[in-house]
Amino acid sequence: MLKLYGRSFQSRLLLGTAQYPSPKILIDAIERSKTEIVTVSLRREMAGGKNSGQFWNLLNSLGVAILPNTAGCSSVKEAILTAELARDLFGTNWVKLEIIGNQDTLQPDIFALVEAAKILTNNGFEIFPYTTDDLVVAERLVDCGCKVLMPWCAPIGSARGLQNSDGLRAIRARFADIPIIVDAGIGRPSHACAAMELGVDAILLNTAVAKATDPVNMAYAFSNVINAGYIGFQAGLLEPRDVAVPSTPVIGQAVFT
Fold first, then answer.
1. For a Cys-Cys bond, which of 102, 156, 197, 223 suits 184, CB 3.0-4.6 Å?
2. pTM for the full model?
3. Active-site residue among 3, 96, 147, 211?
4. Structure-derived torsion over alpha carbons of residues 173, 175, 178, 179, reported in degrees to the nearest 10
5. Contact status, residue 52 vs residue 75, Cβ threshold 8 Å
6. Buried b (16+ CB within 10 A) or exposed e, 53-77
């Protein structure tokens, strides 16, 4: 059971809602994946004009939890304003806090992130901070009151998969009781499975599903491997060895002379 700020969920897959070919494909992907949490950009909702309310009603009809995000923000002030508007619009204290520091790499501005997280937490928000795989930054965010961590796997939309397994392992080991959701950079189901095998709690995806040739089946594929990776980690994975070890014991074998 995945527990986030006092709420429990069966699914360990979170889906973004941008870039899908059509609203119907988005709905089908959500239903096929059995995700229970979707992220929504306030900028998209506001930019939709007359159609924005239809999009909100569409998601609301599916009975999934909404995680608003501050995508596109590049300063503390902008992120705080966006979060406050999102709380009013979506009626939730949840917010995926995203503050971009570099427009080429889309790397989070970790200094602004920590500052904004502290302010928003003090204002009653429940923060899902999009951050790097830096352990010190994770510690600062937890000190600010964040009860979830969302380190990246690789830059947004890069589809590179795991770039720093040791960094994610260090965060997992340091914060054994805090949910860790890997966000960004996953391009294939195998990438998601590998991340789950590190002991993280969930995966957040958007581009890898939305831009697939068949987004609905890709969402289904991700939901399956995420569960498999999680169960595998819990069952106890065999660590790599430097030498071969026979799987069949030699003691007790018949000897022919």
1. 156
2. 0.89
3. 96
4. -40
5. no
6. eebbeebeeeebbbbbbbbebbebe
